[in-house]
From TrEMBL:
Protein name: Uncharacterized protein
GO molecular function: acylglycerone-phosphate reductase (NADP+) activity; triacylglycerol lipase activity
Matching PANTHER family: NADPH-DEPENDENT 1-ACYLDIHYDROXYACETONE PHOSPHATE REDUCTASE
SUPFAM superfamilies xrefs: NAD(P)-binding Rossmann-fold domains
Entry's Gene Ontology BP terms: phosphatidic acid biosynthetic process; triglyceride catabolic process
Gene Ontology CC, one term: endoplasmic reticulum
Highest classification ranks of the organism: Eukaryota, Fungi, Dikarya, Basidiomycota, Agaricomycotina
Keywords, sorted A to Z: Membrane, NADP, Oxidoreductase, Transmembrane, Transmembrane helix
Superkingdom, natural source: Eukaryota
Family: Belongs to the short-chain dehydrogenases/reductases (SDR) family.
Bilayer-spanning residue ranges: 246-264
Organism encoding this protein: Dentipellis fragilis
Length: 293
C-alpha cells in the first residue's frame, strides 16, 4: 500500500432510517466494518444510541422535512469537505389496510416518507455525491412494488413509484458518474411491520377479518425472513462493487417474486394472491350471501 493510499480519508456513507431494530441500523454497522465513515440518521437520536457507542456518527434527520434534510446536508458537507460517496435511502413505513379502508391522510404520510423523502434527499445531497467523483445511491425498494400484495395497496404504490423514480434517476445522473441501484427487498426481520391495525366495523373485508389479522401477524413474524445483518451484508457488498447492479433482488422470497412477475400471467398471480389472502374465500361468502338474499 502506498503512502498516499494510507493517508487517504475513508469513504463516506449516509443512511436514513437507522433506528435500532431496523435494516438501516444493520447497514450502518456493516459499512463501519468495511471501513467507511458512517453518518447514521433517524428522527429520534435515542434510537441510535448503540450506533454512537460503536463510534458511528449520528445525525437527527426527518426525511419529510426539507429544513431537517438541509441541516443534515450542511453538517455532512462541513465534516467531509463537501463530499459524500454513498447515499442509502432506507427510511420507510408501512400502512397495511384494504384499498377501500384507506384514510387518505395516512396514505399521504406514507408517500411523504417512502417517496417524496427520497426525492428530497437526492435533491439536497446530489452535489456532495458528484464531488466525491464516485457517487452511489441505493434506494431501498421492495418486492411489494412489483407484485399485487393484498391489503398493502398504498405501500405497494409507494415502492412501485420509488422503483420508477430510481430508473429515471439512474439515467439522469449517469453523466455525473453517479450509480443508482434499486434494492428490491424481500422478507427481512425488522421492526417495520405494523400489528396495531384492525379492520373498520363497516369494512367490506370483515367476513375474512381472521385472514387479515393472520397476515398482519405473519408479516411481523415471518420465519423465512433473513436477518437484518445478513441483508446488510448483501447490500453493502453490492455498494462496494465498481459497477453496481441496476436492480438488486435480495432477501426472502425475492427470487420467487422475480420469477412470478417475469414469467407468470397477471391473472395467475391474481389467483395466487386471492388464495393466499383469503379473497377467494370472501368471494364464496359473498356469492352465498347474494343467493340467500
Amino acid at each position: 500500500m502506498s503512502k498516499n493510499q494510507m493517508s487517504s480519508p475513508p469513504k463516506t456513507v449516509l443512511i436514513t432510517g437507522c433506528s435500532a431494530g431496523g435494516i438501516g441500523h444493520a447497514l450502518a454497522l456493516e459499512f463501519k466494518v468495511k471501513g467507511y465513515r458512517v453518518f447514521a440518521t433517524a428522527r429520534n437520536p435515542k434510537s441510535m444510541k448503540h450506533l454512537s457507542e460503536k463510534g458511528i456518527e449520528t445525525l437527527v434527520l426527518d426525511v419529510t422535512k426539507e429544513d431537517s434534510i438541509r441541516e443534515a446536508r450542511d453538517k455532512v458537507a462541513e465534516l467531509t469537505g463537501g463530499k459524500l460517496n454513498v447515499l442509502i435511502n432506507n427510511a420507510g413505513a408501512t400502512y397495511p389496510v384494504p384499498s377501500t379502508d384507506i384514510e387518505i391522510a395516512e396514505a399521504k404520510k406514507l408517500f411523504d416518507v417512502n417517496l417524496f423523502g427520497v426525492m428530497a434527499m437526492v435533491k439536497e445531497f446530489v452535489h456532495l455525491l458528484i464531488a466525491s467523483q464516485d457517487g452511489r445511491i441505493l434506494n431501498i425498494g421492495s418486492v411489494a412494488g412489483t407484485i399485487n400484495l393484498p391489503f398493502g395497496s398504498v405501500y405497494n404504490a409507494t415502492k412501485a413509484a420509488l422503483h420508477s423514480y430510481g430508473d429515471t434517476l439512474r439515467v439522469e445522473l449517469a453523466p455525473f458518474g453517479i450509480q443508482v441501484t434499486t434494492v428490491v427487498t424481500g422478507g427481512v426481520k425488522s421492526n417495520i411491520a405494523r400489528t396495531d391495525l384492525t379492520l373498520p366495523a363497516d369494512s367490506l373485508y370483515q367476513p375474512i377479518a381472521a385472514y387479515y389479522d393472520y397476515r398482519l401477524k405473519s408479516t411481523s413474524e415471518n420465519s423465512n425472513a433473513v436477518s437484518a445483518e445478513d441483508y446488510a451484508r448483501r447490500v453493502v457488498k453490492e455498494a462496494l462493487k465498481s459497477k453496481q447492479k441496476i436492480w438488486l433482488w435480495t432477501a426472502a422470497s425475492s427470487t420467487m417474486v422475480w420469477f412470478f412477475v417475469t414469467f407468470l400471467p397477471k391473472r395467475v398471480i391474481d389467483n395466487i394472491m386471492s388464495s393466499m389472502f383469503g379473497l377467494s374465500e370472501l368471494a364464496k361468502k359473498f356469492k352465498a350471501k347474494k343467493k340467500a338474499d
